[in-house]
Amino acid sequence: MAELLEDDEVERRIPNGWEYDGDEIIRTYEFDDYLTAAQFVSDVAEIAEEEFHHPEITLRYDEVEVRFTTHDAGGVTEKDVRLADYCDGEY
């Protein structure tokens, strides 16, 4: 099982633009149109499947909200922070 990060470590390590809320990290990305937002979702879903670590993703017309947590650890782990970095690289 992945090791849970302490609150202060999560705050220190999450990428800019992400928020730490309870047991998850969250970011909303803005796009020019629906197709660009949907492509971003597809790109994130592909790496999530490879990593077998699936975020909650909400797709709207011109924005995408991504939420990461590690359920079996009960909060944020290194894997969540690493995949948040990946999302930023795709954006």
TrEMBL record:
<keyword id="KW-0456">Lyase</keyword>
<dbReference type="InterPro" id="IPR036428">
    <property type="entry name" value="PCD_sf"/>
</dbReference>
<dbReference type="GO" id="GO:0008124">
    <property type="term" value="F:4-alpha-hydroxytetrahydrobiopterin dehydratase activity"/>
</dbReference>
<dbReference type="Pfam" id="PF01329">
    <property type="entry name" value="Pterin_4a"/>
</dbReference>
<protein>
    <recommendedName>
        <fullName>Putative pterin-4-alpha-carbinolamine dehydratase</fullName>
        <ecNumber>4.2.1.96</ecNumber>
    </recommendedName>
</protein>
<dbReference type="GO" id="GO:0006729">
    <property type="term" value="P:tetrahydrobiopterin biosynthetic process"/>
</dbReference>
<comment type="similarity">
    <text>Belongs to the pterin-4-alpha-carbinolamine dehydratase family.</text>
</comment>
<dbReference type="InterPro" id="IPR001533">
    <property type="entry name" value="Pterin_deHydtase"/>
</dbReference>
